[in-house]
Design goal:
This protein is of the alpha/beta class. It folds into four domains: 4-18 and 170-313, 3-Layer(aba) Sandwich (Molybdenum Cofactor Biosythetic Enzyme, Chain A), CATH 3.40.980.10; 22-42 and 135-168, Molybdopterin biosynthesis moea protein, domain 2 (Alpha-Beta Complex); 48-130, Molybdopterin biosynthesis moeA protein, domain 3; 324-391, MoeA, C-terminal, domain IV (Beta-clip), CATH 2.40.340. Helices cover 18% and strands 31% of the residues. The chain has a six-stranded mixed beta sheet with strand order 7-4-6-5-9-8, with no helix packed on it. The chain has a six-stranded mixed beta sheet with strand order 16-13-17-21-20-18, with helices on both faces. The radius of gyration is 31 Å and the shape is elongated. The two termini are 26 Å apart. Bound molecules: adenosine monophosphate (AMP) and magnesium ion. The site of adenosine monophosphate has 18 residues, from α3.
């Protein structure tokens, strides 16, 4: 049996990265940029007006001008404004030659149809002109690789005209829930049966982690059937998760079947609660995680081992670290030798333990915001001690 730290180290060394592929900008939300992006153009690519108003060559001594042109946003013609003249101009329109300043229309009095007068005192030469390149200079670095695509990044790229980028491909992930006792929510239960909560939970955890291609499988506790489903799921996915059947019971066949499928063991059993009998393996570049069947174990093992490994695949860095170190609000007794992962809630910059921490009990998930980690060596962690906290 290995420690949590050893398990994470082994996974960090063995986790794979997705292939670098080209994607259209509109398909990049949530993906990770796999190249540095330099702006192909100056943005703005021309000096333009920041206001609806009038453009002229401003000088302190003159306050009235004759309007000789009207320039709309999108007008691409070359316009020259003579000295003493002004152009009616609108936000985003190209600043015409012969002018350097825009006076907003609110500060202008129209004396006659084509005669205007400036009635303010704050304008100086250059006011209200957005200069070429003032957002992005041509060939300047606008985003480093490793950044995740959100709406802002997509908007920035669109503004410089980038329509296709290199990103890390997302993995195809399959999960197999095992157990004869499982029924789907929405169907009646016989005595001795339970609802399959791991399946829907795993699917949601995968989606929350940025996985887009997900396949679910169900296997009975029968070796031949399980083997068939494992072989099929391995051939169809990059990452395979299993729930249940990995412990020491007479009907726990997952480990035997993974061996038969030539999955190489990275580790089996971690000194942790919940989730001791967790298995991780590899077959070529495929990652395999067999999680114990108890729902809290599935959830905790996913957050600690599967999610970081998926994030690594997606191209993220620093995926193995805790999100915070926060003080706990009460004394928590524990058995030394095992790392505990417990469901908690953040309160005033501390973390509070929730009721119902047993590995079969899902009630705490109704309000849990994080998992807190109690170190293996301690026999009691006292109130006020800072512990590692992982956001859900
Ligand atoms: P196992 O590891 O297969 O012995 O399962 C451990 C416990 O988790 C048993 O009480 C199972 O009934 C339960 N369990 C296994 N799979 C699921 C599932 N998909 N949803 C809810 N509970 C499960
Ligand atoms: Mg089982």
């Amino acid at each position: 049996m290995i420690s949590v730290e050893q398990a994470k180290k082994i996974l960090a060394e063995n986790s794979e990265r997705g292939q670098i592929i080209e994607k259209k900008l509109g398909e990049c939300l949530g993906l990770i940029l796999a190249e540095n992006i330099y702006s192909p153009i100056d943005v703005p690519s021309f000096d333009n007006s920041a206001m609806d108003g009038y453009a002229m060559n401003f000088d302190e001594n003159s306050r009235s001008w004759v309007v000789s042109n009207i320039i709309q946003a999108g007008d691409t013609s070359e316009i020259n404004i003579a000295s003493g003249k002004a152009a009616r101009i609108f936000t985003g329109a190209k600043i015409p030659k012969g002018t350097n300043t825009v006076i907003p229309q609110e500060l202008i009095e129209v004396i006659e149809v084509d005669q205007i007068k400036y009635i303010g005192d704050k304008i100086s030469s250059g006011s209200n002109v957005r200069l070429k390149g003032s957002q992005s200079k041509k060939n300047s670095l606008i985003l480093e690789k490793g950044q995740i695509f959100g709406a802002g990044q997509i908007g920035l790229f669109a503004s410089v005209g980038v329509s296709q980028v290199k990103v890390f491909a997302t993995p195809k992930v399959g999960f197999i829930v095992t157990g004869n006792e499982l029924k789907e929510p929405g169907t009646p239960l016989k005595d001795g049966e339970i609802y399959n909560s791991n399946g829907p939970m795993l699917e949601a955890l995968l989606k929350e982690s940025g996985v887009k291609q997900i396949k679910s499988y169900k296997a009975p506790d029968d070796k031949a059937s399980l083997q068939k489903i494992i072989d099929q799921a391995l051939s169809e996915n990059d990452i395979l998760l299993l729930s249940g059947g990995i412990s020491v019971g007479d009907y726990d066949f997952v480990k035997d079947c993974l061996n038969a499928a030539k999955v190489e063991e990275l580790f089996y059993k971690i000194k942790q609660r919940p989730g001791k009998p967790m298995f991780a393996g590899k077959k070529d570049k495929k990652m395999i995680f067999a999680l114990p069947g108890n729902p809290a174990s599935v959830h905790s093992c996913f957050i600690q081992y599967v999610r970081p490994s998926i994030k690594h695949w997606l191209g993220k860095t620093a995926v193995w670290e805790a999100d915070h170190k926060l003080k706990i609000t009460e004394d928590i007794p524990k058995k030394p030798g095992f790392t505990y992962f417990m469901k908690g809630r953040k309160v005033n910059n501390s973390v509070e333990l929730l009721k119902g921490q047993q590995s079969f009990n899902l009630q705490a998930f109704a309000t849990a915001e994080c998992l807190l980690e109690l170190p293996a060596e301690s026999s009691e962690v006292t109130a006020g001690t800072k512990v590692k906290v992982y956001d859900l």
